[in-house]
Amino acid sequence: MLIQSRPSTDPELVALVTAQQRELREADGGLDGQVTVVRDDARYLVCVVDGRAVACGGLQALGDGVGEIKRMYVRPAHRGRGIARQLLLALEEFARAAGHRVLRLETGTYLPAAIGLYASAGYDRIPVYGEYVDNPYSVCFEKSLTVPA
Predict the structure, then answer these.
(1) 43-72 residue pLDDT tens
(2) What residues contact 142, with CB distance under 8 A and at least 6 apart?
(3) Under 8 Å CB-to-CB from 110, ≥6 apart: which residues?
(4) For residue 121, is it within any domain?
(5) CATH number (domain holding residue 77)
(6) What residues does 43 pair with on adjacent strands?
(7) Is residue 36 part of a domain?
(8) What residue numbers bound the domain in which 79 lies?
(9) Three-state SS across the chain?
(10) What is the domain count for the chain?
(11) 70-116 pLDDT tens trace
């Protein structure tokens, strides 16, 4: 598996984010009719297996040393192989290199596997923030990236 940075205009990244958004709409019963596309203000990593992009995740700056993980997604046929965990670790390193000391993220109550991944990777549940405050299905997490002395 290869994890590489890709621009927001990369066709394989756009296809992954489109699949992620479609799957989210199906998982939440279409409750959130809003379609979110690839964000130009985020930086992205893509996981490539056997020459095919199979997973992605983004990093967006929130300010004051805080970054937010966006668009974490692994194609269904590639789940259960540890790809999401490896991608999450790569995003954390990506965030450290960008100067972030804290990472936040949002997921949905209807995604128990995602909640389990983040909790097992050391993310603590926090109150919903920002654009997620009015979404009753949002679950937010945070992790300090600082290394204890």
Answers:
(1) 999 999 999 999 999 999 998 999 999 999
(2) 102, 103, 104, 105, 123, 124, 126
(3) 27, 28, 137
(4) no
(5) 3.40.630.30
(6) 59
(7) yes
(8) 2-103
(9) CEEEEECCCCHHHHHHHHHHHHHHHHHCCCCCCCCCCCCCCEEEEEEEECCEEEEEEEEEEEECCEEEEEEEEECHHHCCCCHHHHHHHHHHHHHHHCCCCEEEEEEECCCHHHHHHHHHCCCEEECCCHHHCCCCCEEEEEEECCCCC
(10) 1
(11) 999 999 999 999 999 999 999 999 999 999 999 999 999 999 999 99
Tokens of 16: 């992954």
- The reply to whether 122 falls in a domain is no
How many residues are present in the chain?
A: 149
Residue with tokens 């279409």: 30
pTM of the model: 0.89
Decide if 119 is inside a domain: no
